[in-house]
Amino acid sequence: MNNTQEQEKPFLIVGSGTETVAPGLHILRGQGQSFVAETDVGLVVIDAGPGGSVTQGMIDAVRELSDAPLHALCYSHGHVGYNVGVPMWLAHAAQRGDAPPRVIAHRNVPRRLARYRETEALQHRMAEIQFNRPAGFFAQRLSMHAPTETFDERLVIGHGERAVELRWAPSETDDAIALWSPAQRVLYGGAALIDSIPNIGTPFRTLRDTVRWADTLDALAALGARKAVREFGATLEGEDQVRHVLTHTARALRWLRAEVVRLMNEGFNERELLARIRCPDELFAVDWMKPTYGDPAYIVRDIYRSENGWWDRNPTSLHPEPPEAVGQAVAEAITDKAGLIARARALARQGQWQLALHVIDLLATARGDAPELAEARALKAEWLRERARQVPSYVSRNLYRVSADMLEQGTQARFGIQ
Length: 418
What we know:
Helices cover 44% and strands 14% of the residues. The chain has 418 residues and is of the alpha/beta class. A hairpin with a 2-residue loop joins strand 3 (32-39) and strand 4.
């Protein structure tokens, strides 16, 4: 089955239209759940959307709610796709004859955007693989638009009962924000609040701070919100439920940190630690901790990386030969290639796909057109798709599937995939 057949529907687009959660406060659906607040100085919109028809639908939906001018566009966080649509909103304001809206973000967003510009080709390749999109898909889509103003901890917009507060909420990124309506006790949690396990430690991304995310959740819980809108998932209703979900998630993250530290102190390396850690059901077997996007093992790896360097504890890896030379040498050393393939096939027939992958890699990572190497690569691609059916994480499924496609197309080396 090829990439086109297995490709899942867009994961981040959650629909269209609006949903009112309190008077003057609305969910705005697009790339994730954005938010609209009707304040006494005008509309405050969180996230402009990914551009194109999605952003146009967001603009149309807002205009069904209110004819008030757009006072501010705010970045929920610095991941580029959420605010590609900024120029469309600015053009909309200009067409109406309104003053240009403020474009507000946390002060860390410009630094993030500068890093993305520097590594633009890398960012596009990572996004193509992570979201299972063809080469070049993001090159014309992830345009970056800088905010016109930034804030640090807290920014109040409006006055009196209709005022809202933007609050720094470091979580998935160090520039994430939340919106808080004190008068109505409604919280928009943005990237800090989703309906699955926190997105920490994704395979392609830089280090994320597990404990800081827990601190953010505890701080948001302390606000005493009666409703909490997630970036993805159903709205949390009732003060007790909001507090329970936020503090429970924070407690689970702190448990992971403590357990990883304990095992590191006992001398286990990353792979040994991953094999030994057991997440308690009372913390992780709840609806809002499902590994539908991230995974507990991802978080374990990020915590491990936060206290360790890159070395995997195998002295052979300290100063390695080029991957192609290693692959060739290993393949040449295996005199019974047919026997190795047979053993890998036996593991696969037993449903032990991961062990089968470890064994077949002894041949599949070697370059060349020899029949045994071609067979090994074909088997690896087949078994990667089997692994994709086993894991709940959207990211892991895509990495398995896209890697299988690349193996079959012979393009994996261009993306650094083995």
